[in-house]
Amino acid sequence: MAALLASRRFVLASGSANRLALLRQIGIEPVVCPSDFAEDLPRSLPVTEFVEETAKYKALNVADKLKKDGGDGDPPIVIACDTVIYLDGEIIGKPRDESDAFETLTKLNNRAHSVYTGVAICDGKGRLETFHEKTDVVLDFGNAPDELIREYIATGEPFGRAGAYGIQLRAAQFVKEVHGCYNNVIGIPLHSLAMCLRNF
């Protein structure tokens, strides 16, 4: 891994500050280049396919942009991710508005839900690897859930986040259980990513 970090450049195909912070945690200092992919795959797809394919198209979109821009030396390694919540056979993404956030958090309250993150790694030389990680989470809004959920929504934190909560932020107070990779819920399963990168 150390040799790879020293010899290759990295690009994060996302504008997520959380994902950038996670990569920096393991020594990757990427250039940030958000993908233009529309993220419009049908939600009828199996959830694992949905997140991996979305991540793949994000990575390829950015790799194509970089190829057009040119540049000397080896092309950078592009890392792209997609995170969704899965409950009762439904893929849940980012809330559209306050009403949607309230409905989502009410559904998640005191029930185990799954967080899936799809990851795609593209080396710009024709190699593309995809995988996904699943983490189960239980949120508990206590004896006055409606009031607490509305207070939380009023902070603005749920917006722009899959499942309408940020596990590492104010929502930490509502997290009762986490089974699996915690970083996966934030946006990148770091252990699995590092293991995959060692093969590049």
TrEMBL record:
Q: Does this UniProt record's set of keywords contain Hydrolase?
A: yes
Single GO term (MF)? nucleoside triphosphate diphosphatase activity
Q: Required cofactors, per record?
A: a divalent metal cation
Which InterPro entries does this entry report, sorted A to Z?
ITPase-like_fam (IPR029001), Maf-like (IPR003697)
- Name of this chain's protein: Maf-like protein
Q: Which PANTHER family match?
A: BIFUNCTIONAL DTTP/UTP PYROPHOSPHATASE/METHYLTRANSFERASE PROTEIN-RELATED, BIFUNCTIONAL DTTP_UTP PYROPHOSPHATASE_METHYLTRANSFERASE PROTEIN-RELATED
Q: Which NCBIfam families match?
A: maf
Note one Pfam family from the annotation.
Maf
Gene3D superfamilies from the entry? 3.90.950.10
Q: Does the keyword Hydrolase apply?
A: yes
Assigned keywords, A-Z: Hydrolase
Which HAMAP family does the record cross-reference, listed alphabetically?
Answer: Maf
